[in-house]
Amino acid sequence: MVSLIALKSGAGLAIRGGTPSRGQKVKDLFVLNLHPNLTVRFSFSVSLGAGFSGTRTAAVMQRALFSRSAQLAQQAAAALDSPLAGRSAPLLQRLDRSMSSVTIPPPACMLKPLEAPLRYLFGPGPSNVPPRVLAAGGRPIIGHLHPEMYEIMNDIKKGIQYAFQTENNMTISMSGSGHAAMECAVFNTVEPGESVLVAINGIWGERVAEIAERMGANVHRMVKSPGGYFSNKEIEQAVEKHKPVLFFLTHGESSAGLCHPVDGIGDICRKHNCLFLVDTVASLGAAPIFMDKQNIDILYTGSQKALNAPPGTAPISFNERACHKMFNRKTKPVSYLFDMTHLSNYWGCDGEPARLYHHTGPVSGFFALRESLAILAEKGLEESWRKHKEVAAYLYRGLEDLGLKLFVPERDLRLPSVTTIAIPEGYNWRELLTYIMKHHQMEMTGGLGPSIGMVMRIGLMGYNCEKTNADMALHALADALKTCKKSKA
Ligand code: PMP
Predict the structure, then answer these.
(1) pLDDT of residue 98
(2) Which of 40, 150, 204, 336 is the residue whose CA sits 20 to 30 A from 192?
(3) Are residue 322 and residue 396 in the same domain, yes or no?
(4) Can you tell me which atom of ligand 1 is nearest the CA of 180?
(5) Distance from the alpha carbon of residue 123 to the mean position of ligand 1, in angstroms
(6) Whose CA is nearest to atom 2 of ligand 1?
């Protein structure tokens, strides 16, 4: 038998009976004696607007009721009796607004439940997140400095080493999106006044150039229009000319849908004593990259594309050359949060026995990232690359069958995760995309930065990388092409 105690006498809240008024002491004691395994159908409401119902065993009910009513009792006691009543301001306001010390009322939107629609995220990211990764992110929080969290971070490090194909010890995840990794790479390896060379063939090179300029680097740009790419000869000539400490290249240019060749560039950089930094935010898991074999000194990615974790974490890795440069600086990096001397300790990469507090890592984000890296490890990189290529090829055929033109003519240079379509003549791309969102609940996007007005983009990555999804995207596009054209006529 268990006693179902809803509330103790005098705690300040009526479980049965009416709404308590200010100053009222409630004497009710509510006890039910039930067998713990007895299933009880209940509908139970307490005053102050709280209520719950359902079917539970008595033991579960006891726990739920007791903790809920204890919580409500505390709130009510604080609101009604406590000299510190201001602490329970929202509740107090509901009870007696004239006593409120706050002048800004609770916003009406915050008193409504969260609403987030279900959408097919077939744009350049974020991509839909598999239930398994969502579930991992929804697990109860543990402390960011608990030994179990360190173990999870160690697992993440191994998962990233696999995904990047590197043995680099200095491999971590940023607490932040792809931009955090971008800034971390530049802030730590470049000092003010040093020369940086950036390849720009879409938005991401320009973004890195701006980041480097902001921290005082002497930035040199090599520029091609979206969809363009650089030969190794062009790169070597620019490296010889500008003598940069860092050369930046985007592997998967998501704004243009181009996957840039990487072979040989690391060797050029090595020869000229320059670090090679590569962005794989949009390409990791979708197109082959081999950090160690390709002599890439710094590599980063994002969580929300082919990895299929929620946005907000960003794996990054530095090799020995990069570590040598960043740990032998004359000046401190401009950012405390992104300072690798601290982050390397937090991630257990600096050989120190103790991992110290630096910032509070995104615990749920790391759970989800670990799960997404686990899925990639189970599936295998080669299988993931193969699948992205196969589904992309299927999509290309379907798009061409619709009479559409792919933006990147060279098939081998197309980014398998994000396909760019030249905007079909006579159509307003915004109208097409708005129609697809409205009638198919599907996100596809236009261009970004220099590719705006040039392309529409379809991303099928990771979990979304399936022929059935390609079919859905093609069907939605066909419908939009038919309907939007008609509406224009
Ligand atoms: N690089 C590339 C190639 C990207 O596609 C993106 C995101 N679209 C970023 C960097 C920036 O990542 P985030 O939005 O996660 O900061």
Answers:
(1) 67
(2) 204
(3) no
(4) 16
(5) 13
(6) 281
Number of structural domains in the chain: 2
Helix, strand, or coil (residue 332): coil
| Residues of the chain scoring pLDDT < 70 | 1-98, 486-489
Kindly give the number of the ligand 1 atom that is closest to the alpha carbon of 254: 5
CA 178 to chain centre: 8
Domain, as residue range, for 389: 381-483
Residue with the nearest Cα to atom 13 of ligand 1? Answer: 178
Q: Which two tokens stand for residue 313?
A: 């974490």
Cβ partners under 8 Å of residue 154, min gap 6: 348
pLDDT number for residue 100: 87
Indicate which residue's Cα is closest to atom 9 of ligand 1: 178
Same domain, 335 and 189: yes
**Residue 178 Cβ < 6 Å to ligand 1:** yes
Place of tokens 């491999």: 171
CA distance 120 to 122: 6
Q: Is 282 in the pocket of ligand 1 (CB under 6 A)?
A: yes
**Percent of the chain scoring above 70 in pLDDT:** 79
With a 6 Å cutoff on the Cβ, whether 254 touches ligand 1 is yes
Instruction: State whether 345 and 391 are in the same domain.
Output: no
pLDDT of residue 486: 58
Task: Map residue 358 onto helix, strand or coil.
Answer: coil
Q: Which CATH number is 331's domain given?
A: 3.40.640.10
Residue 90 confidence (pLDDT): 55
How many Cβ atoms from other residues are within 10 Å of residue 71's Cβ? 11
